[in-house]
Every structure is written in C-alpha cells, then in structure tokens.
C-alpha cells in the first residue's frame, strides 16, 4: 500500500520523531536526581554556635519526657548523685517572663570528677556535670551538655585518665534519653582559662566561703540553688582534694533575658562561684565571665543585662576576698 504525503506533512512527522528520540536519549543518559537534603533546624544550628556544646535531637519527644528519662537514669545509677534540678521556664514565669520549656539537671560522680580537680581545682567551676533539655521556637527539643574536649581544653585536663569514661557516660545518658545520636560541635576546644574570672583572697578558705555565702544570702534578688563540697565528696570515695567548694545561685530577672536570646545559655545558668585553696595555700574565688557566656552562646543585644550580672558577680567576689 502506498501512502502519499505532502511536504509539510512529512516535515511535521519528522520533527515529532526527532523530539521523541531526543527525549528517550535524555532519559537513558541523565543521572538520577538526588533527594533534596533536609535542612537542619535552627536550634541545631544554634547548638553549633555554642562553643563546646554537644547535643542530641529529641525526635518529636517533649521536654518533660526527655527530662524524665534522664532523671530516672541518673537516679538508677548508685555512683551518681543529683545535686540540683532547675526549671528555668518555671523560674521565668515567677519573674513575670515567658520562656520556652527549659530544664537543667546538675549531677556528679566523685570517682570520675575528682581526678579533674586534682589536675586543676578550677575545673570545679564546671563540675558537677550538667545536662540541659529545652524546646526551641520551632517546637524542636534538644538535650545538650558540655563536651569533654571543651572541659579538657578550658582547664588543661587533656591527660586525665577519667575523661573517656566521662564522655561515654554523658553521651550514653543523652543518647538513651532522646533515642538519638549525639552530635559534637565543630568549635569543641577553647583556650586555657577562657572566660574564667579568678580573684585571690586575703582571707582563709573558710572565711572566704562564709563571706561569699553571706553576701549572696543578703541579696534579696538572689536565690541559692545548691552548695557543693567537692573535697568532702572526694573523701567519700577515698580520694584526696584540697579545700574546694561550689555555690550555685540565680536571679531569674537577669538570667531569663539571656535564655530568651539563646536558650543554650541555660547550660551555664544558674550562676556558679568556686572557692578553693591550692597547694601553695592561696585561696581564690573563680566564676564565669558573663560576657564570655554571651560570646559562647551567640547572645546579642543584652549589654545592659550583662553589665548588671558582671557588676553583681564582681561585688560578690570582692565581698568574699577582701
């Protein structure tokens, strides 16, 4: 059978065939598309901003569920003692301010922590250990803690033998509580003594601590959350340590605005002051510089609050050391 076509019909059919074979060729030679990567939540990126802060995502769990898992695990471990539990959101509410769910638990194991202070008593400023659990503005939950490398570099503890055990314990607690992998920050190390203010006292260890305690108690805006005798805890596990005491206290009116700016700063709140006597007999009071904490957690626009905190801490240290 013969099919007669005009020139225009022939041209149209040829064009259609050419288009068909071109499409087939493209499908055969093109590479499969990659799935679009899921962007990290803002809070996770904020976690990276905080120097030395390791964390795990909550996998849709609420803060209370993660925190409950965490506390239960701590209570089930006979080697660990819970020193204090702080509900930052509740404290903010009492001060008439709003804050997303934010909780921190302070706990310790003297067998693991004392060797750090034997190497450098100033490490007691970051002991006991702390784990922060919070929900960000997007509704994502996280559990965070100070990485071992952060503690080691800040206090010169790289050779202390208990560091790997501490790292495994902290990572295990957070991993089990969140059912999620722990992420270590890119900015994991800091310089020696970074952000630590230290003042030498003209008084004895006992007098220095008593003066500090009375100065805090005499301020109606401040509440003592916990007091910890590191030396006594060391003795309880058969270890020696020079006189070393920590006092934990806070003022939600000043702390809450910082957490509103960056919830991760809750790991460093409430405030802490360490009193210790070194091998030479020198007594010192050490505490975290609030401006350093702002830098660590990427806090902007809180200069007035930071100045008030710095002035208050300076006044307390002076009252204890003079």
In words, what does this structure look like?
Helix content is 44%, strand content 20%. Helix 8 (205-217) crosses helix 12 (303-321) and helix 10 packs across helix 12. It has twelve helices and ten strands. With 322 residues, it is α+β, with helices and mostly antiparallel strands. The strands form two sheets. Strands 1-5-4-3-2 form a five-stranded antiparallel beta sheet, with helices on both faces. Strands 6-10-9-8-7 form a five-stranded antiparallel beta sheet. Mean pLDDT is 89; it is low at 1-47. It comes from Pontibacter locisalis. Pfam families: DUF302.
Q: List segments where confidence is low: pLDDT < 50 over at least 5 consecutive residues.
A: 1-47
Main-sheet strand order equals 1-5-4-3-2
Question: Number of folding domains?
Answer: 1
Shape: globular
Q: Report strand %.
A: 15-25%
CATH top level class name: Alpha Beta
Mean pLDDT: 89
- Could you tell me the radius of gyration in angstroms? 28 Å
CATH superfamily: TT1751-like domain
Largest sheet: 5 strands, antiparallel
**What structural class do helix, strand and pairing data support?**
alpha+beta
Gross CATH architecture: 2-Layer Sandwich
Helix content: 40-55%
């Amino acid at each position: 059978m013969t099919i007669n076509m005009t020139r225009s019909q022939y041209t149209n059919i040829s064009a259609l065939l050419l288009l068909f074979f071109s499409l087939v060729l493209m499908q055969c030679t093109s590479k499969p598309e990659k799935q679009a990567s899921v962007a990290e939540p803002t809070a996770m990126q904020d976690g990276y901003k905080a120097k030395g802060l390791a964390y795990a995502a909550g996998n849709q769990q609420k803060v209370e569920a993660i925190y409950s898992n965490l506390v239960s695990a701590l209570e089930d471990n006979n080697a660990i003692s819970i020193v204090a539990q702080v509900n930052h959101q509740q404290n903010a509410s009492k001060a008439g301010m709003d804050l997303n769910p934010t909780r921190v638990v302070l706990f310790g194991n003297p067998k693991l922590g004392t060797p750090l202070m034997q190497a450098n008593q100033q490490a007691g400023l970051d002991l006991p250990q702390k784990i922060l659990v919070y929900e960000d503005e997007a509704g994502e939950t996280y559990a965070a803690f100070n990485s071992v490398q952060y503690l080691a570099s800040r206090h010169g503890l790289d050779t202390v033998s208990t560091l790997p055990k501490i790292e495994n314990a902290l990572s295990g607690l957070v991993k089990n509580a969140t059912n999620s992998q722990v992420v270590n920050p890119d900015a994991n190390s800091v310089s020696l003594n970074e952000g630590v203010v230290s003042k030498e006292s003209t008084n004895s260890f006992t007098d220095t601590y008593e003066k500090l305690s009375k100065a805090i108690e005499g301020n109606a805006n401040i509440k003592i959350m916990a007091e910890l005798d590191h030396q006594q805890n060391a003795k309880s596990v058969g270890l020696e340590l020079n006189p070393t005491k920590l006092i934990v206290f806070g003022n939600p009116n000043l702390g809450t605005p910082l957490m509103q700016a960056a919830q991760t700063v809750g790991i460093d709140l409430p405030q802490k002051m360490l009193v210790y006597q070194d091998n030479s007999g020198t007594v010192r009071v050490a505490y975290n510089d609030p401006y350093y904490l702002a830098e660590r957690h990427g806090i902007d626009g809180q200069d007035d609050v930071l100045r008030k905190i710095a002035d208050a801490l300076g006044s307390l240290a002076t009252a204890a050391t003079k």
